[in-house]
Amino acid sequence: MADTAKAKGGGSAKSTGGRRRSRKDTTQGAPSGTTSAVADEKPDALLDYYRRMLLVRRFEERTGQAYTQARIGGYCHLNLGEEATVVGLMESLQERDYLYTNYRDHGYAIHKGMSPRRVMAELYGRTDGVAKGWGGSMHMYDTETRMLGGYGIVGGQMPMATGAALAVSYRGGDEIVMCQLGDGTTNIGAWHESLNLASLWNLPIVYAIVNNFTGMGTAVDKSSAEPDLYKRGSAFRIEGVRVDGRDVLAVRDAATELVEKARSEQRPYILECTSYRLKGHSVVDPAKYRTEEQTAEARSNDPVAAFEDQLEKAGVLTEDKKKEIADSVKDEVADAADFAENSPSPDVSTLFDYTYATPVANESRRMPADPVFAE
Amino acid sequence: MSVITYRQALRDTLRDEMARDENVMLLGEEIGLFEGSYKITEGMLKEFGERRVRDTPISEEGFVGAAVGAAMLGLRPVVEVMTINFSMIAIDQIINHAAKVYGMFGGQTSVPMVIRTPGGGGQQLGATHSQNIELFYAFVPGLKVIAPSSPADAAAMLRAAVRDDDPVLLLENLGLYNSKGEVPDGDESVAEIGRAAVTREGSDITLIGYSRMASASLQVAEQLAEQDISVEVVDLRSLRPLDRQTVVDSVRKTGCAVMAEDDWLTYGIGAEIAASIQEGAFDYLDAPVRRVAMAEVPLPYAKPLETAALPSAESITTAVKETLSAVGKRVG
Ligand SMILES: Cc1ncc(C[n+]2csc(CCOP(=O)(O)OP(=O)(O)O)c2C)c(N)n1
């Protein structure tokens, strides 16, 4: 596995001697061997990854637009700049594998198998949304494709994902669980408790950290005493790997290796994908905490543009093909938005449909102005 | 008909449910080798093995959350949280996740799990270990919060909780574990969550309680019967969903009410009951609703202080008699 650093469990990780590294040091830009890696790949697969990354890009752009037009409410966190990580991670999973993510979840939802139409409809809060309009941006969920939810509470997904892996192990299944999280999340109690349980109980789970180097506006080295996040499992004897999250092939390879190890060894793993979000934390965040240089560096390392460039240079992506893909992605996103736009809002009469799965006596179905006791 | 303890009723039921359904598993601190801090899980590890009876590290958020995730994949975990005081470490997983995923994901996944946890004062454990904070959970739609007061109810309600598809918080009470009661042999009854019970019929006054206070209320009613006072006792049994109608029906019949609760007065369960009586039986009331609750202090360790702070049969009796004299009913 090229361009990855490993922290073996049991304390064999190389010490950084307490030195805090800057973002530049820790991100390994596009690996030098990438062109040859592209040459080793099937062109159709490469074009498919490209198309998927572009779909996330265009979907998120459209989402941002719809949000500023107030078609979408609530908070809205986009995957812009993290497309290679999203696609690489999702390529590593089998259909039967489960996924838990944080609130930056649209791209994962789509590439775990949900239709962009239904994801967009959820953003619009409509009945055809994946959660019938009950979840919104932060809470994409779909039983069928085994995307078991985006979660808005930082770290909230971690114990649940760990428990899902416990259920798999209890039944002797061969699915694995992937639990996506951000760099900022590695400091919350749920992270530590989950890793401890997963290691103690030998659970088949991969914790995939998307290290975009900021939790809202706080830099990773201002929040994590050990900013090399892939090493943070060493206290729990969990092996960690870091990969360049702007390189879709590298993410796919690293993730696939860990997913298959987690499956065959029934052990947890950590994968850290170094990444960068191109925009603010959410659509309304102008990201003033970032320097000009950081922003410029990010733009010049845009994973979608970089991959496009590579594929063009390798002769895989011709002008015609590029246009064809761009058009089809554009149509797909427009279709998703149209679908969402035309899907009805949920009827108010359904307000009490989802409080309990097992119906109960005396469940309150009172509307705000109703008396508690009918005359 | 056998007379068994509340503890035994819970233990027997839990074992039966484990034997009945392979998906039922136990999680919690010290539930296996140690056999449970309060011995509810005695013998379980030996009978069912480590796969199904899992000792957890001291990490309430981690293991309660793991139960939520396992339940989302169809297991039916029964989690023991050593005492309700420690559930606060797991409150994010309970309130933000267990209670919400069914609604938030449009009914696609439910969380069939049980959290069993004892609470209550009277054990000289000091302020952090003597709390009745069920209100925090009873406030939240999506959770079911039940509080059995007798061995028979403990069995029927635990059975219901394990078989229910929603997250159920089952409150046990340290003061009730050794209390005894009749449980019909071979009883397989499953309580209906959300139903209160009139545990004694009467005509002079309604006395409402739950858990330890429902049991104390029955005692009080029996004593007062000897003085020719007819007390109707309503055991709430379920704090969410709350059966207001049974309370209101009883008060419409008797004309006055006393609520006995083991939690703090301000914003407590009794406040909710008093408000419900006001809305549902105002015209029938002959006297204001009285509330007997814990003194509003962090519970002290020293025995005389602790005893004074907790509601008891005596304090309930006083409130009942004062209410009855206020309405001009003869009291012994
Ligand atoms: C428990 C909790 N605390 C704070 C927040 C507010 N919050 C939302 S996202 C976020 C930053 C998290 O950063 P990170 O884990 O790095 O994920 P990223 O946004 O980069 O994907 C914060 C502080 C929250 N949602 N939950």
From TrEMBL, chain A:
Ranges annotated as biased composition (Polar residues): 28-37
Catalytic activity: N(6)-[(R)-lipoyl]-L-lysyl-[protein] + pyruvate + H(+) = N(6)-[(R)-S(8)-acetyldihydrolipoyl]-L-lysyl-[protein] + CO2
Domain Dehydrogenase E1 component: 51-348
EC number in record: 1.2.4.1
Keyword Ligase appears in the UniProt entry: no
Function: The pyruvate dehydrogenase complex catalyzes the overall conversion of pyruvate to acetyl-CoA and CO(2).
Protein name as annotated: Pyruvate dehydrogenase E1 component subunit alpha
Name of encoding gene: acoA
TrEMBL record, chain B:
InterPro entries on file: THDP-binding, Transketo_C/PFOR_II, Transketolase-like_Pyr-bd, Transketolase_C
Domain Transketolase-like pyrimidine-binding: 4-179
Keywords: Oxidoreductase, Thiamine pyrophosphate
Known EC number: 1.2.4.4
Keyword Oxidoreductase appears in the UniProt entry: yes
Coiled-coil spans in chain: none
Highest taxon in the source lineage: Bacteria
Stated name of the protein: 2-oxoisovalerate dehydrogenase subunit beta
Protein's organism: Streptomonospora litoralis
